[in-house]
Amino acid sequence: MFYSLRKAEKNDLGAILEFVGQAGLSTEGLEEIIDQFVLLENSDHKIVGCLGMEIIEQDGLLRSLVISNKMNQAHIVTLLQSIDFLKEQHHVQQIYLMAKNEASIRFLNILGFKEINVQNTPDHVQKCHHVQQMLQNEEAILMVK
Fold it and tell me: Which one of 15, 48, 52, 93 is most buried, by most CB atoms within 10 A?
């Protein structure tokens, strides 16, 4: 099957909300960052992976990283490499994300992310609503690249 990577457009919002919602993640505020989303689609133009970036001052916070369980590692890496595209395009200095499980953390370490204590981040990251929400989960780990 053929897969393509592309930047999201406004008319993708409904499909993104459905895809992210089915994964059990919050869709709160995604309409505000739709132009900061990258989509991985199959040959039928169905979303099989996505990630978005919320810009917080000069930094970015990855949101809604969702990958279909049918994807192989090469496609997952392709989607995650688009993080650098978003970073460049939006001129952000650091990219933060919240991870919940050990396998994800190890994989993200390979991609250059490092665990960081929230107290060692700028105030604008600490005060971000999404970060505050995620930190209520004791398993959540903040990472930076």
Answer: 52
Quote the domain boundaries for residue 137.
3-144
Where residue 106 falls among pLDDT bands split at 50, 70, 90? confident
pTM of the shown model: 0.85
Residue that has been written with the tokens 């459905």 in this structure: 18
Contact (CB, 8 A) for 144 and 96:
yes
Q: At 61, is the secondary structure helix, strand, or coil?
A: strand
How many domains does the chain divide into? 1
Query: Residues near 7 by Cβ (< 8 Å), separated by ≥ 6?
Result: 35, 37, 38, 39
- For the segment 68-96, the average pLDDT, to the nearest whole number, is 86
Question: What would the pLDDT profile of 1-32 be if each residue is shown by its tens digit?
Answer: 788 999 999 999 999 999 999 988 889 899 99
83 to each of 36, 37, 88, 89, 135, how far by Cα in Å? 10, 10, 9, 10, 22
Instruction: For residue 40, give Cα distances in angstroms to 5, 35, 94.
Output: 5, 15, 23
* CB distance 5 to 40 below 8 Å: yes
21: domain CATH number is: 3.40.630.30
